[in-house]
Amino acid sequence: MDGVQQRMEIRRFVARVITQFRQQEADAELQRELTAHLRLLQDDYERRGLTPSDAYRAARVQLGTERTRDAHRDARSFTWLDDAVRDLQHAARLLRRSPGFAITAAVSLAIGIGATAAVFSVANALLLRDPVGVANPRALVEIGNGRPDGGINPTSYPVYLDVRARATSLADAYGRSLMPHAMSLRRPGSAGPAESAFGQSVTVNYFSVLGAVPVMGRLFDTADSAQPGPTTVLSHRFWTSRFNRDPGVIGAVLQLNGQPFTVVGVAAPGFQGTSIVAPDLWVPLALPANSDARAAMLANRGGAYLLIGGRLRDGVTVAQAAQEIDVLGRALNQEHARPSGAPVTHLVSSSSVSGNRRAIVALMIVLGLIVSLVLAVACANVAGMLLARGTARRHEVAVRLAIGAGRIRLVRQLLTETTLLFAVGGSAGVILAHVLTGAASSLPSLPFPINIPIALDLRVLAFTASLTFVAALVSGLVPALRASRSDVVSALKADGRQTAGRTRLRSAFVAAQVAFSLVLVVVAALFVKALNRAGSLNPGFDSSGVEIAAVDLATVKYSEEAGLAFVDDVVSRLRSQPNVQSVAVASVFPGGFEGIQLDGLAVPGRSGDDAASLHISWNLVTPGYFGTLGIPLVAGRDFVATDAKGAPPVTIIGEAIASRLWPGESAIGQRLVYRGFSGAAVTSTIIGIARDVRASSLIDGVAGSYVYVPLRQHFDRRLTIGARARDGGRLTAEMRAVVAAVDPMLPAVSSQTLEDSTRLGLTPQRIVASLASGLGLVGLLLAMLGIYGVTAYAAAQRMREFGIRVALGATGWDVVGLVLRQGLWLAVIGSATGLALAAGLARLLSPFLFDVPPLDLTTFAGAALAFLLTGLLACYLPARRSTRIDPVTTLRAE
């Protein structure tokens, strides 16, 4: 019996659904049935002796035509859906009748919803979206040298081998260079200049651990790390753009940095590993080490050029794996006699922003708070407008209540109007989000290619739709409840005025607008001040007029001797250029993304970890580096050409290191011990002390004090050339021509000014400052409109009072004072609330504010004054209009 009943219910439901889409046919059938029944009843009454007209009337009364029609419609369809359709049609008609209200509210909502959706789109691309072409990405982790902020930095190849061999919580582990490096590329039979391509070095199990599959050919296997002819895999994007999707590229031999590489496969479309970094191609990391320098680099445990990735075993959590890796890292430090201050190997969840998930999460939270404030301002503005609109519609609502409309039905209809309005604003917000995310994709010039797949996918659209619905419910519920509670008798009177409760509620929304807008302005001012402070601080070097260009010589073609000859030739040729004032070559310049790491810093004859615990950055430089950057030497001398391999090792240290290790005495002539690239201990003599430099980086934050080592004593194949122009202009053409003349096999160098490079580290602050500034101005404008609207309406309601006051002898200034007092009171309450909220938020943002106190008095006072002046300006027109009142005319109208 239950089965039969269920089938009947299913048939009824299906019949209702079908009828919902054929209402006209169903109404026609119903009308035919009603007509037939009505005719039968009429005939019966006529047989009883009634006249045809009386019989027709009696038949209609007995049949209850309208009641029967409504009952039939309720039984055959979904009543709530019909009501919703009627409510939507009614709401659309009302919005068309009030285009000014609809456009103003929709624009406010589009700004708030669009900004929020744009930030969520970026967060979705960076933190939530799974990488393309990677199997089960939730089981992937990343391993490197731990940082105090919880992130990781690159580590070394020996550490990778130990982790892969000893970590039981990992099914397997791979290694990859943190960033791809520019490589020269020559196609088969090409006689032109070398092209530029960005290649990433990976272990041969990289693709298998990620579960990647090729679109053509094959990916790496164990034979690729040992075979004489090295191989490469192309990205699908690179294969499409450079090789026009030519299938014949499989098996072709490309010259990469002058060395032949056989193309064995093409990765799947969209695959770029787990990171936002988008290499053009991949090459095996552990190629045959047929040079002493490369063998030393691979054996250097203190190196920092490799990021380890791994896949968890089934049933193992990230926390369990992190605990094992931490224990393993400490054990490795003890086994290899690394000091206690040395970084410990650490494990984090895999992320598209390798090792920096927490920093990106923090930035997204800050941006989310900012756009949430804008949305709150927009919602408060719309809620205030709905309250005002409800006041204007009191008579309409009262009439509907008087003729029997239920309060719940009325609230539902009013919420439908609000939802439709928010739907229009949300749709416009999606378009605005698309524009904003397109602008967000155009990042500053970086020394490597990245690809952030920002798109308005289903997750973003679902988020936007949910946000729109919730915002509509929150913003429209109070005005709808307030409007449905109208006093029918007073509302039907011609002189029904707005109650005090309605005025207070609308004023509360305006005060909320002021508060949230003031928070935006304070945040924007703090970040702008932080940027100005960062720009005004003395970084310890002069970046103006300095051009830098990265060159990668990391190939077996360049031995150490050949690399040094290349450096000498480039420096000599650049110095001969008429517009070049000075030239230097270094591993890194201030503000770069990557540094070098030499391990085991200690002072001979001392016990303890004073030296090892210092936050130290290392750099390999040529003579003239300090002069090119304008870094003063406070003691000692600069490097000279004779500080080369075979000569006594020498170093130049920063002031902070000197004062920490030798307080109150001279560090010149003192000795330091560190481990070079070969892993052997090096005892070096300090010959100079340099002024400390401050350089921000997207990877490590503010750099520590430097230890400088001559490039000729510890050669590094990844170099940066720096040149200062005599006229302060660009030197791109000169650098490109000189590098091409020295080695045509190298790709054309891509240069940037040192000013741009150092400013890049402040990108998060610039994003927040720009977003908060633009949206803060929008919030300020909305707050001003809100104060104006409340003040103008309140003044209009008090015209009778003003007329009486003027008739009794009040002056125009007395009336102005009354109007201004009410409007400024909203600005004062909103500003006080906003200052309290801004103080709490500023404390949370203090890590992003360089040397700017979170409770900066001038910033807070300036923002409060700006909003008070804005409130005064918003009250000016209503106050001026009130002074023109004619008491005789006003009282006669009463």
Report the mean per-residue pLDDT as an integer: 77
* Helix share, percent: 40-55%
β-strand number: 25
Given the helix and strand composition, which structural class is it?
A: alpha+beta
Overall 3D shape: globular
**How large is the share of residues in beta strands?**
15-25%
- Report the end-to-end length measured between terminal Cα atoms: 74 Å
- Number of helices in the DSSP assignment: 27
Low-confidence stretches: 697-702
Radius of gyration: 37 Å
Largest sheet features: 7 strands, mixed
- Kindly give the count of domains: 4
Question: What is this structure, in a nutshell?
Answer:
This protein has 894 residues and is of the alpha+beta class.
List the topology elements.
Layout: H1 2-20, H2 23-47, H3 52-63, H4 65-76, H5 79-97, H6 99-128, E1 140-146, E2 152-153, H7 157-166, E3 170-177, E4 181-186, E5 195-202, H8 206-210, E6 214-217, E7 231-234, H9 236-243, E8 253-256, E9 259-267, E10 281-284, H10 292-299, E11 306-312, H11 318-335, E12 345-349, H12 357-392, H13 394-402, H14 407-441, H15 458-484, H16 488-492, H17 500-536, E13 546-552, H18 560-575, E14 580-586, E15 599-602, E16 616-621, H19 625-629, E17 633-636, E18 650-654, H20 655-661, E19 671-675, E20 681-690, E21 696-697, E22 701-702, E23 705-710, E24 718-725, H21 732-742, E25 751-753, H22 754-760, H23 763-797, H24 799-807, H25 812-844, H26 857-883, H27 887-893
